[in-house]
Description:
- The structure is a single chain.
- The chain has 1 helix and 10 strands; from the N terminus they run E-E-E-E-E-E-E-E-E-E-H.
- With 107 residues, it is mainly beta.
- It has a single domain (5-105), classed as Jelly Rolls (Sandwich), CATH 2.60.120.
- The protein is globular and about 35 Å long.
Amino acid sequence: MYIETSSIKEITVIEGFHARFIHTASLTLGYWNVEKGSKLPLHSHVHEQITQVEKGEFEMTINGETHIYSKGKVAVIPSGEMHSGVALTDCELVDIFCPVREDYKAL
């Protein structure tokens, strides 16, 4: 299968967080454009999550531990782990979720 990511409709998931998603049978891949100052509220989910910053700086707190992520840095978030974040600059992020984010499929 060939997918041109620019052809995927971008949706706003929460204020300041705009995404394009690819869903397979076992995972969800998300390409995010996040506006500077946008906040990801503290939450958790059953999905394992890997977040990679492609552009900008994103501060993320995972299980009470805060780090600033920039290009080349990766956050690994286990299932059920509380996490939150804030875009320190405009950001481009890539997320992998396993299993599939059914809630994002419905958007």
